[in-house]
Amino acid sequence: MSSAARIEAFLEMMSAERGAAENTLNSYRRDLEDAASAIKSGLANAASGDIRAYLDGIAAQGFAPTSQARKLSALRQFFKFLYAEGLRQDDPTGTLDSPKKGRPLPKTMSEAEAGRLLDRAAAEASEPPPGSDRLAALRLHALVEVLYATGLRVSELVGLPVTVAQRDDRFFMVRGKGNKERMVPLSAKARAAMTAWLAARAKVPAYAESLFLFPSSSDSGHLPRQVFARDLKGLAARTGIAASKISPHVLRHAFASHLLQNGADLRAVQQLLGHADISTTQIYTHVLEERLVRLVNDHHPLAD
């Protein structure tokens, strides 16, 4: 029986016994026929080395790890069927590892964009846009300055107790995941924005007695994260930055990326972000790699 005939038999089994949908069958057919055209010895007779060479080939062509994994899955199902039917005495895919999918790089923004965003927030705090509320502008300025200066999670930021700002204004003590406390330093600009916000907050009777740094009439008693995200997108649009490009989480990533670009240690960034495991912080290793390449190119005597 030829490889083509065995592929047809496999697809018939998938349809009749497993009720595979038409789209699924078409996907299996495309993947198996692609492999059959690449493996010259014939797909049905392929050895592990043949299949490994085929997978290496599609990886070299630029296929995404998810596509590679899907093709390998189709091959596993096919050879499992041949083995079960007694058409092969072994399964050549048994020793093959699935392609590593890798973690997507975090979405971030450039230092120039972050600077423009903060400058716009400061300008609006001094002179709110027509029809805007000065209290809200002061609050938004304080929020973005503190977020970019500390890299707090948005839930940590909006839920800060007012007591954190009534101690040493050079640092915040933040209680994060797992109820663990960490100390994060504040920049001079963040301290100034926070001072202006606290002065304005104290003049609002509904806010003055709140236990939260950023009070609200919401059920939680503090500013909802969704409100901050909406206000941040509005600020970005007024700055000339696409609203789709920014979120509180993007600013957190920008904080970490810009620190590393400017020489910070990965372990220090781990502490500041409140990551329990360094492996979580290692999503930023691409920044370190770029920095090391730049360092060698700029300073090695044999660099072009």
What does this structure look like?
The model has no long low-confidence stretch (mean pLDDT 86). The protein is mainly α and 304 residues long. The radius of gyration is 28 Å and the shape is elongated. α1 runs antiparallel to α2. It has 14 helices and 2 strands; from the N terminus they run αααααααββααααααα. The longest helix has 20 residues.
Architecture blueprint of SSEs:
Elements: H1 3-16, H2 22-38, H3 48-60, H4 65-84, H5 111-126, H6 134-150, H7 154-158, E1 171-175, E2 181-185, H8 188-201, H9 205-208, H10 225-239, H11 248-261, H12 266-273, H13 278-281, H14 285-299
Antiparallel strand pairs: 1-2
Helix pairs in contact: 1-2, 2-4, 5-6, 5-10, 6-8, 6-11
Radius of gyration: 28 Å
Overall form: elongated
* Portion in helices: 55-70%
Strand content: under 5%
User: Are there runs of 5+ residues with pLDDT below 50, and where?
Assistant: none
Largest sheet: 2 strands, antiparallel
Structural class: mainly alpha
**Gap from first CA to last CA:** 59 Å
Put simply, the count of helices is 14
Beta strand count: 2
Order of helices and strands: HHHHHHHEEHHHHHHH
Strands ordered across the widest β-sheet? 1-2
| Average pLDDT for all residues | 86
